[in-house]
Specification:
The complex is a heterodimer. By secondary structure, chain A is of the alpha/beta class. Chain A has ten helices and nine strands. In chain A, the strands form three sheets. Chain A has a five-stranded parallel β-sheet with strand order 2-3-4-8-7, with helices on both faces. Chain A has a two-stranded antiparallel sheet with strand order 1-9. A two-stranded antiparallel ribbon of chain A has the order 5-6. In chain A, strand 5 and strand 6 form a beta hairpin. In chain A, helix 3 runs parallel beside helix 4 and helix 3 packs across helix 9. Chain B is an alpha/beta fold. In chain B, helix 3 runs parallel beside helix 5, helix 8 crosses helix 12 and helix 9 crosses helix 10. The chains are: A alpha/beta, B alpha/beta. At the A-B interface, helix 5 and helix 6 of A face helix 3 and helix 5 of B.
Chain lengths: 283, 310
Amino acid sequence: MHKLNDDEELYLEQIALKIRKNVVRMIKAGKAGHLGGALSAADIIAALYFKIMKVNPQNPGWRKRDRFVLSAGHKCLALYAVLAEMGFFNKSILDTYGSLGSKLPGHPDMHKLPGIETNTGALGHGLSIAGGMAIGLKMDGLDSKVYVLMGDGELAEGSNWEAAAASSHYKLDNLLVFVDRNTLQISGRTTEVMNYEPLYKRWEAFGWCVREINGHDLKQIVENGTDIPFENRKPSVIIANTVKSKGLSFAEDRVNYHYWKATPEEFQLADQDLNELGRRIGI
Amino acid sequence: MSESKDPRKTFGEALVEVGEKYSNVIALSADSSSGSGLAPFKEKFPSRHLEFGIMEQGVIGFASGLATTGKIPFVVAIAPFVTARPFEMFRNDLGYMRQNVKVVGRCAGLTYSTLGATHQSLDDIAIIRTIPGVVIINPGDPVEIKKAVHSAAEHKGPIYMRIGSPAMPILYNEDYRFEFGKGVVMKEGNDVTIIGTGTVLSKAFDAAEILEKDGIHASLIDMHTIKPIDHHLLIKAAKETGRIVTVEEHYLHGGLGSAVAEVLALEYPAPLKMIGVDDQFGGNGPYEKLLGLYGLQAGQIAETVKEFIR
């Protein structure tokens, strides 16, 4: 387990802000994009890449690397932003979002850019693929871990629960899921659209070791994310309570910012909010 | 034809052979291991067999993830439950991700003749054929099954292999050379070309012999690879014999017949007759009788050919 000191926390806050700024930058370039989930997951993704996971931008296929599976593929703007920040590819590529032939489709494609492990987008696929990776890594005697980010609305897909059962059957204690519980999906409040409660008990009943955190508290994310397995011979899941569109005051926790077709005025507001945050944390 | 062999048992034996050759070959089943001929593989390589129970969507995703770590997964289960049921997983997690996974649908076609349409698979080739980059192999005899399993392990990329269950007559010698994407001319003739595939190749073979006795010289092609299909051989056959008849234990829509029609219509139009199951759910009853219901017995095929070329 790693406990962040204040300097480390500030550094990750700065990374998370850069991710948020680049998410907005891509949406500006493409005129529209999946905003809300990318911003609710931005702190988790910053912490994963800049503190928790072993990855090497100079050698993306490194055999002993940890794997990240973005099951909720529509949050990929945050993934593109963090990979660019780490140097997997040049940041100028971010400005191609939305253009013909861009390497940044609206859901990620592993064959288009280095550092992307899976093609996701259709929901409910990521956990099975991650489970297969986790078994394969164990077969090879590697201690690499597999990290998955899922949306809470996505949990209505039955295929997730097939994968949850198999992951505990195979005792995949090298597997950690973050549920980005921002409580909103396209049609409304997730528990009203299709109730997933009791979420904690549900994962527990499937044989997982469960923790619940504030998904914007970098100290909590890192402390728990570097502490797996939570229990030997069990897969781990973190229910991360987040706010959709976190960081943009006009959009936070509002259902209509799942997919954002922004007006010039909204872009201005977004820049104001993010620049103000930047001034507070020194970038 | 003197001898027949169980295709599932043959598949299982072949998988042991490739398992011995390649330590990264693994087998995944969905409560389907014994029925898929996996018993010898499980016994020989217990740590390389993974059971997933009746988890027919999830098993495809797990196979995809395993392939990312360099394994060569063979996923084996009843044909509709590895194709129609998890179609999106097949398309995205194997096709779109270009994973080196081999999916084997067994008891395909009308094999489960008495169990009815839920367990029959008459659309598997049609739907998997829409996925870019997936090779579809439909072996026509036990020797071909064995060779195809070896080739599948050596090919890098997703493959769908279709096998039946009733004993298959042996049509090839052991020295037969199997090559993906290359149809095999099993018999030469100038009057018409019969193209057979998979479980009913032997029926097409017998039909060609019946026709020969009646003075009709049919050419016979074994089209074991449905995708990519052998354009060159199809056009050559159309040029040389003028008429083509396809024979398959599959829907007429989307299977071998459709694949052949697509090539001929665009590249060398020629009269075509397709034998298979038309637009209906499969019936139920004894297997051979069911084949007869759809005109897939050798005598019926021969009659259809005669009428077609008359």
